[in-house]
Design a protein that fits this description.
The structure is a homodimer. Chain A has about 425 residues and is an alpha/beta fold. Chain A has 16 helices and 15 strands. Chains A, B: This is Histidinol dehydrogenase.
């Protein structure tokens, strides 16, 4: 238990420190090599890496629609229903985010517009690993579908049987994703960013992944021949902000939900109640023992932090300083605290809103800024799958009205041609009037 | 004159190639050194670099409000009026972009929200160089003001007299920018990203600059202790899409407006009229001779391209392939062509809409995606100065309605604690009912 008000500022910074990110020169070089291989040898390199790491017998990167549907049909009706319930909520919430184009006359005869358009081709990365992640397929696939992206490309590592999890196939089908490729890791990111014969280049790449994937996304986002990416990524994290009214079992299960994601997950409880901390510690011990991912969650909980503050307001200040990816608020008046909360990726209000609700089915997106990026990056949403551009159209009157100011400013900046572009036009208008 | 339809695909790609970006190992290392110096020595390093590169006698990085206002008062009334005209249009257009928060019940008892909030602290970089750029101050300062950013930090290199251009001071005053620091280059970017004693760290850095500034922005955006940035940058560019109805003097002045920005500026005319190309070439020669920035514009025009297509539709296809920062459309029915145009940062429609209108005063933002990034990045707007986050709140009914689907999905993903977080809550609700 950390008693916040007894710490110096430096100790407070330490108490909220995140684990160092995998940023070794070795990782950077390994990923750079993989990118270079894919850039020069295309499909052949992607296939080689995929055979080496994921599926030794793989002969083709493409998963056919028929195969997708055959896999999807293996999902039990109960899970199909659950995926469709989640799909409907996520779709509704992202449809509500559809932006309005703008058209405005700023000066008589000067029309300015801002229009939104879907990105043409998006790459959706779905990690492999110990469990299939149909929820991530929805969190990326639904906004791509709602935005109206022409191409939705999904890459995910195949298993030894050259297949993907049926749940992933089913979720992909729900989202209308037809282009599915059997590859993962840095090689998949490279293929989507640069393009190969089989996998045509995309404009932007989305989705979570291991340190190779994260590093590859960073590297391709730095290259003009690469692709944009959704956001920088770090280990997942939750901060639970609670007072004495909170249920210790609920809080413990929320901390453990985060902890079971990975050994580097961060779980933090901040509360003004020492009794709650004791009760939560006991509940964590009890619940942890029963988890199938016990070893992962135990490892993560070694770094869990229980921070005691002198008031709820001080607890909020701690949360604002940390800027958590997930912020769970279980206080007597959770909604009333919202105006004080500054930085968080997604906020879960009240006792009945566990993180798993947002991870799966409430409708919000579970791709969120980690590692303090909630200060300056947005939670994933429909706008990330679209692009804004502007239009201006001046009429003859518009040119007459605004031309003199433009010439004045061009003069001030010493740009003759900018002034002339208006000058020639005003001359022509004056001649027309003669 | 390039006859598009006679080229192979590879030749077409070459014809639209952009100049290689300054991406030398030397530049990267130099910038990394500057960042490291600022990170370790703070103000002292920033002052040293600023004395070396910009203002040998400088003793303080801070420009006081009094000094800002004193400088601003030196601007002539004519230029003050012009800046205020532009300011009013830019402000109107960015106010119109203010987003709506969303609140939606996705399932009975499950409320999801998306809220927008201003970034807390933004850094606005204004280059120095041969001419002051009050227009860039407005393009960054107005959206920061409209968004409601608490801190707006402006960095710009001082002159030998330890001052900045009066026009910059005046524009900063219009935008309510009080924090002005006298530094430029990579050292200014480092100071804003990492913070120093004088310059408190910002969350996101905006604005154009030379290759050092661009490289420094890239590097700080890759660091968790750095800052987000507006967008990747390359040399500025214009593509004029015209048919035989276009006025050759107008087109020439628009190409030259781009060319005078810098020797690496790109100016491209794409048209189905060989006569127009000839007339524009003649007009360019005539106008170019009279420009004060003749040597810069001449250098850029050496790389200008005049592309002849067989039809307006083919010209649009060329433009879509190039994805220009600025697209000027001077055709018989310019607005009617909009549905065919796919990728452009900002579009200037018709004969009376020169690029200089948007550069200065129409209301649209002049910070736009260059170098083909118009495929996957947005033109700068109000949303870039804000952050989206989500909220969800389940009532007891919401938990009862959605809980079973969440448990089903957690099971499918093998995440026990996620399931338990719902299980404990449903148990408690069931007990309450007993």
């Amino acid at each position: 238990m950390i008693n916040w008000s007894t710490l110096t500022s430096a100790q407070q910074v330490d108490a909220l420190a995140r684990p160092a990110m995998a940023d070794s020169a070795k990782l950077r070089a390994t990923v750079a090599d993989i990118l270079a291989e894919v850039l020069t040898r295309g499909d052949e390199a992607v296939l080689e890496f995929t055979r080496r790491f994921d599926s030794p017998e793989l002969t083709s990167l493409k998963l056919s629609i028929e195969k997708r549907d055959e896999l999807a049909a293996r999902v039990t009706p109960e899970v199909q229903d659950a995926i469709q319930t989640a799909f409907a909520n996520v779709k509704q919430f992202h449809e509500a985010q559809y932006p309005q184009d703008i058209r405005l006359t700023t000066t008589p005869g000067v029309v300015c517009e801002q229009r939104f358009t879907a990105l043409e081709a998006v790459g959706l990365y779905i990690p492999g690993g110990s469990a299939p992640l149909p929820s991530t397929v929805m969190m990326l696939g639904v906004p791509a579908m709602v935005a109206g992206c022409e191409r939705k490309v999904l890459c995910t590592p195949p298993n030894a049987g050259q297949e993907i999890a049926p749940e992933i196939a089913f979720a992909a089908k729900c989202c209308g994703i037809g282009e599915i490729y059997l590859c993962g890791g840095a090689q998949a990111i490279a293929a989507m960013a640069f393009g190969t014969d089989t996998i045509t280049k995309v404009d932007k790449i989305f989705g979570p992944g291991n340190s190779f994937v994260t590093e590859a996304k960073q590297q391709v986002s730095q290259r003009a021949d690469g692709a944009a990416i959704d956001m920088p990524a770090g280990p997942s994290e939750v901060l639970v902000l609670a007072d004495e009214s909170a249920d210790a079992d609920f809080v413990a299960s929320d901390l453990l939900s985060q902890a079971e994601h990975g050994p580097d997950s961060q779980a933090i409880l901040v509360t003004n109640s020492a009794e709650l901390i004791e009760a939560v510690e006991a509940a964590v011990a009890k619940q942890l023992a029963q988890l199938s991912r016990n070893s992962i969650a135990s490892k993560a909980m070694e770094n869990a932090r229980y921070i005691l503050t002198s008031s709820v307001n001080e607890a909020i200040a701690v949360s604002n300083q940390y800027a958590p990816e997930h912020l769970i608020v279980q206080c007597d008046n959770s909604r009333g605290l919202l105006p004080l909360i500054k930085h968080a990726g997604s906020i879960f209000l009240g006792p009945w809103s566990p993180e798993s609700a947002g991870d799966y089915a409430s409708g919000t997106n579970h791709v969120l800024p980690t590692y303090g990026y909630a200060r300056n990056y947005s939670s994933l949403g429909l706008l990330d799958f679209m692009r804004r551009y502007t239009i201006q159209e001046l009429s003859e009157d518009g040119m007459r009205n605004l031309g003199p100011a433009i010439m004045q400013l061009a003069d001030a900046e010493g740009l003759d041609a900018h002034r002339n572009a208006v000058g020639y036009r005003l001359d022509k208008l004056n001649k027309q009037n003669d």
